[in-house]
Design brief:
Layout: E1 2-4, E2 22-26, H1 33-43, H2 45-48, H3 53-61, E3 65-70, E4 75-85, E5 88-96, H4 105-116, E6 122-128, H5 134-139, E7 143-149, E8 157-164, H6 175-180, E9 183-187, H7 189-196, H8 206-209, E10 220-225, H9 228-233, H10 238-248, E11 252-254, H11 258-268, H12 278-292, E12 299-301, H13 305-319, E13 322-324, H14 326-331, H15 333-340, E14 353-356, H16 362-369, H17 378-389, E15 395-401, E16 410-415, E17 421-429, H18 434-453, E18 458-461, H19 468-476, E19 480-482, E20 485-489, E21 494-495, H20 497-506, H21 513-526, H22 535-545, E22 549-550, E23 557-562, H23 564-570, H24 573-576, E24 592-598, E25 609-615, E26 630-643, H25 645-652, H26 660-667, E27 674-690, H27 691-698, E28 708-710, H28 712-723
Length: 725
């Protein structure tokens, strides 16, 4: 954020505004005060930075420019410029002329903003620490909540200031989360050179240099492509090359595999002149890297007019990469964010809904999910949809939506014609949308469990136009690419290694040689003498046949007690449905999670291992229509880590449901160690097993105040009772 209250504040006076001396106006584009505001900004550019002239008019169009007018002189003496989004106000400029400081003008401007935006959560501002304005921000009602290094050449530190409106909310959004939530952009070489040349702040470069202004620091994460190194190398001045390379250290550099780069360069070559200049060649590489980079940025920022006017549409249509100018990015930052960002929602035990697809929905599906980047034919996609919708007795056709009437995030078709496989001919998710991707992953895991539940041996995803991120996920969870599509073996129940080997061999088919070879390999591995004692190999085979379990393996088994409040967020959708707020949005969609507990009395927990989750009774759940004091699910232990609360919270913040203070409470001190259990592949029991029933099954009492180790036979009996009923 840019701020100016004069070169030296001295002792700040906070007086009431005198009578009707001032008026406050929301400035529109026809106001004569806009030019006065721009002159005031230019006068104080040493502290305000260089804000594009056009941006003042764009903010005025949106009603986000407020001026303080000295009525006796008909003169603009202060102004504030802001934007709204993500449930709060982001302060961009707050400027008071030197002559008028100490007269509560700044406080009045903040009050004006609040009166116009009182439906939001509050105001977020960023200010350089070396401006020494802490007393001022505190007097305006702000609290310092966060600190981070700036990207300016001086290496200044930025402090985040938050003014909370204290509005009552059903769900409170943390401003820390707002601060961390950034848009990834990739800038071209010329924009980088403008940013690197801070001393040369001319009209041509000021739009680009505004990308480094304080208020944008929490909004965007800037990347440059590896091609920048070649651009720097073309400079003949060795001193300048060193300066640019030193400046480059403050930026993130992104690259991509050579084969991907070469392929993409060929695909976009026709967009450039037949005879390429060195600049054209560099542009091709920069755009190709931006498309193929794992950063998956949605914006390529450039000032090149030809790229902006001639290439933008085709690049966006084919690759969903938007070529945009610095000015357009700055002026429309919140609108652009809404194009690419997800909002937290709930799925397992949440408000996200599964909706059956009807015939009239076909064109909507085509508009949302036709895969242009892979050359999918619209007529072919339409034909597949119609074929499966025509026979609802064999097929299930659904999409997942966040709210009724909104565009679907995920669409899928299920074909049950074959008794041995659950076939999925269509599985689509929105590209570059985290929530859609997580919904698709959650769906895939549910499809595996559904296939096993229906006594099918395979889940087959035969869609040829999957998003790349979905294919990566399929590999991670042991789908295997064959002639008929992506295939996952999903056996049901707990059997010995030799029994599993026979089941796999009896499932082979001559129709798909690749699948036959894969199943034969799995079967042969299970027949290796003493394979059950090789924990890494046998655990890998179990993951490949999940949810099936190998009864005589030496994988250790544990029973862990957990309160229903934590279970609802970690894995239990049925419990979540009994609670007002349901499951924690993003956690409910994750395959991999973490659970913290004391390192004491851990029952010898180790990885790899299996967990039987015993969900205890607890206050607040007495009337819940669910079975508690029961074993409700099974998971895999991927990792056990013992460390301090600070280290574990930093490592697993996005995987757990605990706050830092919760971890300190578990460990009984910030310097005391505790245990993190990272687990995955949770399988819900069809029938929860009450503790007394489990004791009858294994023939002995179970004391479950802390994790306990159980023998392989006990695990087999309890597990099969829960899933084979």
């Amino acid at each position: 954020m840019f701020i100016h209250f004069g070169k030296s504040l001295g002792s700040l006076r906070v007086n009431a505004l005198e009578g009707n001396e001032f008026s406050f106006q929301e400035i529109n584009i026809n106001s004569g005060y806009i030019e006065e505001i721009i002159k005031l900004a230019d006068k104080n550019s040493s502290t305000l930075g260089f804000f594009p002239r056009k941006a003042f008019y764009e903010h005025a169009k949106k009603g986000h420019l407020i001026a303080c007018i000295d009525k006796s002189k008909d003169k603009c003496v202060a102004y504030t410029l802001y934007m709204t989004g993500k449930g709060r106000v982001k302060l961009t400029h707050l400027c008071v002329d030197d002559e008028y400081r100490g007269r509560d003008v700044a406080k009045a401007l903040i009050a004006e903003i609040k009166s116009k935006t009182d439906h939001l959560q509050g105001i977020l501002a960023s200010c350089r620490r070396d401006y020494n304005l802490s007393n001022l921000w505190e007097s305006l009602g702000f609290s310092a909540t966060h600190e981070r290094p700036g990207k300016s050449k001086s290496g200044s530190t930025l402090t985040e200031w938050w003014l909370d409106y204290c509005n009552p909310n059903l769900i409170t959004l943390s401003h820390h989360k707002l601060i961390e939530d950034k848009i990834a952009i990739i800038i071209d070489a010329n924009v980088f050179f403008d940013l690197a040349d801070e001393e040369n702040r001319d009209e041509y470069s000021r739009d680009a240099q505004a990308l480094l202004d304080d208020w944008l620091e929490s909004e965007i994460e800037i990347f440059v492509t590896s091609e920048i190194n070649n651009e720097i190398d073309r400079n003949n001045d060795p001193k300048r090359r060193d300066e640019l390379r030193n400046r480059l250290r403050k930026f993130n550099i992104t690259n991509c595999p050579t084969e991907d780069l070469d392929k993409c360069r060929k695909e976009i070559r026709h967009l450039f002149p037949e005879k390429l200049s060195s600049s054209d060649s560099s542009d091709i590489r920069q755009i190709a890297i931006s498309i193929c980079s794992d950063v998956k940025a949605s914006f390529f920022v450039t000032k090149d007019t030809r790229l902006l006017e001639e290439l933008e549409e085709e690049i966006f249509d084919k690759y969903q990469l938007k070529i945009i100018s610095p000015l357009e990015l700055i002026v429309n930052i919140d609108e652009l964010r809404r194009e690419i960002k997800y909002q937290p929602a709930r799925l397992a035990g949440t408000s996200i809904k599964k909706q059956s697809i009807r015939g009239e929905d076909i064109e909507t599906l085509i508009d949302c999910f036709l895969n242009y980047s892979k050359g999918e034919n619209k007529a072919h996609f339409r034909t597949i949809l119609r074929q499966h919708l025509s026979d609802p007795t064999k097929n299930e056709c659904c999409w997942i939506e966040k709210e009724a009437g909104q565009e679907p995030m995920v669409a899928y078709l299920i074909d049950r014609e074959s008794p041995e496989e659950l076939r999925v001919p269509i599985l689509r998710s929105k590209r570059n949308d985290l929530l859609s991707s997580m919904c698709a992953q959650h769906l895939i895991l549910n499809l595996i469990n559904l296939s096993a539940f229906e006594n099918r041996i395979f889940t087959v995803i035969s869609d040829s136009y999957l998003e790349e991120e979905i294919e990566v996920f399929l590999r991670e969870i042991h789908f295997y690419r064959t002639q008929i599509g992506w295939v996952k073996v999903n056996l049901k129940g707990c059997y010995t290694a030799s029994e599993m080997a026979e089941i796999l061999m009896s499932s082979t088919t001559e129709e798909d040689g690749i699948l036959k070879d894969y199943l034969t390999t799995l079967s042969n591995n299970l027949k290796i003498p003493n394979i059950q004692s090789n924990l890494d190999v046998i655990a890998g085979i179990e993951q490949a046949i999940f949810p099936g379990k190998i009864a005589d393996s030496l994988i250790p088994n544990f029973m862990i007690p957990i309160k229903p409040w934590w279970a609802k967020d970690l894995f239990d959708g049925e419990i979540a449905e009994q609670v007002l707020w349901g499951a924690n949005s993003m956690l409910a969609l994750r395959r991999e999670l973490v659970y913290y507990r004391s390192r004491m009395a851990s029952g010898g927990l180790k990885a790899p291992g299996r967990i039987l989750w015993y969900v205890s009774q607890d206050k607040g759940f007495e009337r819940a229509n669910i079975t508690l004091s029961a074993i409700r699910a099974c998971s895999y232990i991927d990792e056990i880590i013992i460390d301090t609360p600070k280290s574990l919270y930093k490592k697993f913040k996005r995987l757990g449901i605990y706050k830092f203070d919760d971890l300190v409470a578990v460990s009984k001190g910030q310097d005391k160690e505790l245990m993190a259990i990272r687990f995955s592949n949770t399988e819900f029991f069809k029938k929860p097993i009450k503790l007394k029933e489990a004791e009858n099954l294994i023939g002995k009492n179970i004391h479950i105040q802390a994790p306990i180790k159980i023998d392989a036979r006990s695990f087999e009996l309890i597990y099969n009772a829960g899933v084979l009923c």
